[in-house]
C-alpha cells in the first residue's frame, strides 16, 4: 500500500504512473528478504493474480485523466522472447559477479549457508532490464520500491546509464513495522490484504480502528490524503449521510484524534474540527419488526434469488448461507448482539435452583468498556419461544457439549459469519418486498420491545447488561423467583399466548 500511495501522490502532482506487473519475473521469484526459494506459481495462478492486482490498483489511482491515467505493463511481454545468447552479450556484460555477490539479497543467503539457485541469482539482472525496457518504451525515469529493493533498483539505474547514457532515478520506502516491532509484510502471516477475498472489509476496518496509538501518526502520514481544506467537504458529507447521534459521535472522535496529534505528538497545526456544531439528537427511530415481516424474510431465504451483481463487470455473489434462518431466529429470541449470538454453545446453558434455564456468556461489551481482566458475565433467560427453538436444534441431546449452536460444523470465522448474517438479512429483507429501513439490529430492538411489555422500566437491566443487577434481581435468587422473573422468562415475542 505504501508504494501505491507514492504512485497516488505523484499522479496527483501531474505525473503518470507506470505499474509494472511481474508476469515474467514471478516465474523466477525475487530472493530479497527470503530464506528459501519462493513458491513457483502455475501459469493460471500468475494470470489470475495479475488480473486481481490490476483491479485493486485501479481503485486507488485516477483512471479518468488521459494525461495521468496509469499505464499497466506486464514484463512477460518482453521477457518471454529473450534470446539467451543475445541477452548475455548485450545486457549481461554490464554486470560483474563480484558486485552481484555484495547485494543483501544474495550475500545474506550465502552467509547463512542457505541455497540460492542460479535462477534466483539472475533475478536482479531481469529487474534491471525491466527498468531499461520501461525507459526505452515509456520514457520512465523513476523506479519506486521497498527498501529491500534498493540493490535491484540501483542495478537498473546503472544499466540505463551504461546502455543508453540516460539519467534515471530510484526511490525506496522503508518496510513498515508496527510499534511492537512486527513487520507488515505483503507475504507474512496476518498480512493486511487489499483484496476483500483474502480479508473482509470488516477486518480491514478493524485493523485501522485498532491501530496502536504509537503508530497512528506514522500511518496517518503514509496512508491518507487528509488535507485541511477537505474538512468542510467531510463535514457536509457526514451531515448528509449520518443521523444526529452518529454525526455527533463521528465528529467527537475526529476532534479528539486531532487533539491527540497536537497535544501528544506535538504536531504544529490547528484542529480543524475544534468548533464543529453539535446537532440536537432526536429520539431513536429504530423500528421493530412484525411477525408477518419476519416470516416473509424467512420464506425469502428459501425462494428469493440469492445472487447479487457486483461492480460493472456483472460478477455474481451468492448471499445464501445454510445457517441464515437459524441465525435470524437466534437473534430475535435471545436479543443478543452479533458476536454473542454467533458463538453461543450448548455448554453455555445453565439452570437455576428453580429449574429456569439461561445462557451465561462472557459480556464482551462490558469487558471492553472496563478494560480490565475481571470476569464479566451476561445472563440471557431462555423463555418459552427460545426453548422451543433450541429443542428443534437438538438441545435435549446436545446440552452441555462444547458444540456451537449456530453452524456447528463451521468452516468460517466468527467475523465472517457475523458479516454474512448482516448482509444476508438485508438481501432477503429486500427479497421479501419489505420497504421498512431495518437491519439485523432491529431483531434485538423487537426482542426488547416485547420484554418492555412485562418489565417496564426494568428492561434497561437486561438491555444495558448491568450483570450484577441482572444476576441479583432476575435469575439467580436462591430462594424464590419473583413474579417479574416468572413473567420475564415467559415473555412471548410478538405477544403470542
**Gyration radius, to the nearest Å?**
30 Å
Total strands: 9
Q: Which shape, going by the Cα principal axes?
A: elongated
The level of helicity is 40-55%
Major sheet: order of its strands?
7-8-9
Poorly predicted regions are: 474-481
The overall pLDDT, averaged over residues, is: 78
- SS field, number of helical segments: 24
Classification by helices and strands: mainly alpha
Largest sheet: 3 strands, antiparallel
Distance between the termini: 58 Å
The oligomerization state is single chain
Instruction: Indicate the proportion of strand residues.
Output: 5-15%
Structural account:
The protein has 497 residues and is mainly α. The chain is built from 24 helices and 9 strands. It is elongated and about 90 Å long.
Element layout with pairings:
Elements: H1 2-12, E1 18-21, H2 43-60, E2 71-74, H3 76-79, H4 84-90, H5 97-100, H6 104-111, H7 118-121, H8 123-138, E3 142-146, H9 150-164, E4 169-173, H10 201-209, H11 213-223, H12 231-241, H13 244-264, H14 291-303, E5 307-310, E6 315-318, H15 324-334, H16 338-342, E7 349-351, E8 357-362, H17 364-370, E9 377-381, H18 384-392, H19 395-398, H20 414-431, H21 441-455, H22 459-463, H23 467-475, H24 483-489
Parallel strand pairs: 1-2, 3-4
Antiparallel strand pairs: 5-6, 7-8, 8-9
Helix pairs in contact: 8-9, 12-13, 14-20, 15-21
Summarize the model shown:
The protein is mainly α.
Labels describing this entry:
497 residues, mainly alpha, two-stranded parallel sheet
